[in-house]
Each structure stands twice: as structure tokens, then as C-alpha cells.
Amino acid sequence: MNLEIVTTADGSTTLYNPELNEHYHSQRGAQGESEHVYIQAGLRPLLEAGQKHIKILEIGTGTGLNVLLTLREAAANPSVQIEYHTLEPFPLSADVAAGLHFPLLDEAPELVPILPIIHKHWNNKKLLPNYDVHKYYVGLLDFAACQNFDLVYFSAFGPKKQPDLWTIEVFTHLRTLLKPNACLVTYASQGQARRNMQAAGFEVFKLKGALGKNEMIRAFAKAL
Ligand SMILES: C[S@@+](CC[C@H](N)C(=O)[O-])C[C@H]1O[C@@H](n2cnc3c(N)ncnc32)[C@H](O)[C@@H]1O
């Protein structure tokens, strides 16, 4: 796949997939969007509630930006144990990974060597004493472990481009991987996708979207 590196408005890079005619992030700011959707709306409420062990599942590792942003949160909260599981059926080549850059790396240069490590081929790594990352080179429907996740970063391509990842079947499968009341956050807010989440047993809320986007979704898994 010929992925192109694109610099977004906040200075962070994203990728463009010409086959899908789709960017991996908002062109208004890859880092800003990911901070808003996954960190501020997803992880921070759990940290602020005092949760001491947080298990996260990311759908679509992509550039590794969410792995890095979550590492920064783990470093700032050393008493919290974060287990990060991330799925990616199409991992990046070393060449593409080498061209990525995010402003958070300028603010925390000690993280610079971590980005290439994220994109090497491995399964489990302790990136910090309180931050374990587990990588799986599979798609969501092939990930069947019983994992009891607290939080899902749902960062698949959008429902128009990859409709097979926003179905009732997919959200029903996802719910079997989650603790009751686990939270799912995603940048998208398409009506059909919301209805599919509801049909699969999620309570769905619309929040203000990132960087001028009207809406995003935060949903909670009802007990099975
Ligand atoms: C919007 S991009 C990823 C954004 C990523 N979180 C980031 O920060 O770069 C969507 C990602 O989902 C991956 N993907 C495609 N099919 C998938 C599947 N069935 N399950 C999980 N991930 C998938 C794509 O390869 C791509 O990396």
C-alpha cells in the first residue's frame, strides 16, 4: 500500500491512503484531534475518577500516535498501571514510520526514540514501568481474547470508507471484550454508526467534536 505522509495544521503528521482516499486523522491537526477524542474524552475521566488499573483497546494502531499520547499520560501518572492493547492488520513499513513527527516529541524529546520502537515487529513491551503495550497484527473481528477492557479507542477509518467496521455485528463482538460500563470513544458521529452501537447494547452520547467538528461519540457498554 502506498501511504503518503501529510503534515496537518498543528504540525503533526498523518497518513493518506490513496486506495480509500482517506486520511488517518483530521487535517486540522492529527495530534490535536487525537488528544481531544481519545485522551480528553476517553482516558482522562478514568484517571480523574482515581482508577488505578486501566486496560485500553485501540482499533487501528496506524501511526502510533495514540500509543505515544497514552505513554505521556502514563508518565504523568506513575501510580496508575496502564495496559494498552492495539490492533493493526496493516502495520507501517519502517520507511513510512521514519517520516512521522508529532509536536509532543518536541516538548518531550525523551520520547523521540520510542516512535521507531513502536513500529518494530513485536507483541508485548513494557515502554514504562507502569505502561505495557500489546500489539496484535489482526483486525477486530479476528481478535477474540476475553480481555475485560475499560476503554476503547475506536479509530477505524470512517463509516463511509470502511462500513464493515461500524456494523451491529462488530459492536456486538466488541462488547463481549469489555467490562460492564466500559467506555468507547471515537471521532466519528454518523447516525447509522450510532444506531448500530445502540442496537449492540451501548448507551451512546454525543460530545463536542475535535477542532471545530460538530460531534464525536462517547458510548458506554451496558452489562451483558
Ligand atoms: C484512521 S486510521 C488509524 C488511526 C490511528 N489510531 C493513528 O493514530 O494513526 C485506521 C487504522 O485502522 C486500521 N485497520 C484497518 N482495518 C482494520 C481492522 N479490521 N481492525 C483494526 N484496524 C484496522 C488501518 O490499517 C489504519 O491503520
CATH domain topology: Rossmann fold
Name the structural class.
Answer: alpha/beta
Number of strands: 11
Helix content: 25-40%
Tell me the name of the CATH class.
Answer: Alpha Beta
- Using only CA atoms, what is the Rg? 16 Å
Bound molecules: S-adenosylmethionine
User: What is the CATH architecture assignment?
Assistant: 3-Layer(aba) Sandwich
- The count of helical stretches stands at 7
List the helices and strands in order: EEEHEHEHHHEEEHEHEE
Low-confidence stretches: none
- Summed up, the domain count is 1
Largest sheet: 8 strands, mixed
Q: What is the 3D shape? A: globular
pLDDT averaged residue by residue: 96
Please report the distance between the alpha carbons of the first and last residues: 39 Å
Question: Can you walk me through this structure?
Answer:
By secondary structure, this protein is α/β, with parallel strands linked by helices. It has one domain: Vaccinia Virus protein VP39 (Rossmann fold, 3-Layer(aba) Sandwich). It contains seven helices and eleven strands. It has helices spanning 30-48, 65-76, 94-98, 103-107, 114-118, 168-175, 191-199, and strands at 4-7, 13-17, 22-23, 53-59, 81-87, 124-128, 131-136, 149-154, 178-186, 202-208, 215-221. The strands form two sheets. It has an eight-stranded mixed beta sheet, sandwiched between helices. A three-stranded antiparallel beta sheet has the order 1-2-3, with no helix packed on it. Helix 1 (30-48) packs parallel to helix 2 and helix 6 (168-175) crosses helix 7 (191-199). It is globular. The model has no long low-confidence stretch (mean pLDDT 96). S-adenosylmethionine binds at residues 24, 34, 59-60, 62-63, 65-66, 87-90, 139-140, 155-157, 165. One of its GO terms (biological process) is methylation. This is tRNA U34 5-methylaminomethyl-2-thiouridine-forming methyltransferase MnmC.
